[in-house]
Input
Amino acid sequence: MSRQPMNSCLASSSHIAAVFLFHCLVIFFLTISNISSSYGGNNETDYQALLKFKSMITNDPYRVLTSWNDSFHFCDWGGVSCGKHHKRVTRVELISKGLEGSLSPHVGNLTFLREFLLLNNSFEGVIPHKLGHLSRLRILNLSYNKFSGEIPTNLSRCSNLRSNKLVGSIPKEISFLSKLNTLRLDANCLTGGIPPFLGNITSMEVFSANTNPLGGNIPHTIGQLKLLRKIQCSECNLYGTIPHSIYNLSLLTHFALPVNRLTGSLPLAFGAMLPRLVFLQLRINQLTGVLPPSISNCSELVIFEMAFNSFSGKVSIDFANLRDIYEIGSHYLHTMASYLHT
Output
């Protein structure tokens, strides 16, 4: 009879030990989970991608990446923003930080990234093709760096790549970006002309490719961009006539094609067709004919540069209607005076 209480005590002790062990395991796993969370946790991919990005930086003069260490959750690192609920990286903003180095292809693993802003640094090398994996990316600004090579054909959002050393032509894959509204490629070394397929991006509002040796004609398909507000292609070695379809873009505010080899004349109804113009820059081309009197209708005009062309006849633009003008190309004043006396 004395064995029963002993067995009962043993069973009770075993039960208590099991409960204690269970609680210890729960505490252990919760602790591991918290530690894991601080180092990325379920978001380990984002954590590792950011560390790979940092590892490719060769100079950080303002020490902006000093917070990128294990002491902080990566969502609290300088220049990094995350979603409130899923704690995945949605934005990286490192503008004008003096950073030098190359861009790690592991950035392509930040699958929740929506904005990637590295403008005005000194990144070199090619733009990784893995950036094309970022299907959620909406804003990409790599301007004013030293990137070289061609524009990756799979780049999902190449909205702002100006002032680099990119070569080759504008890739056809850009035409698949049905929601792209801004394409800035200024100050690179791009060739191959303005491709006709850009006319397929009907959401585009800004196209700027200043200072590229593009060459070729302006395709008439640009006239399909009914939302276009700005076209800026100075010093692009463009030639031929300005397609008439462009004059149907009634939302245009910036019409800037200076320092090219454009020929032909402007339509007499120019000002009536483009009444919202603020910047009109066609200086240093080979345009002929008269300056359309209808430019008087462009009442919001601020910049008016038409010098060094081959216009003829009297100037009959009513500048009294152009009250906001604060810059007329200085050389044009002499040209205009000679027209007024012919």
User: Anything to note?
Assistant: Confidence is low (pLDDT under 50) at residues 26-41, 333-342. The radius of gyration is 30 Å.
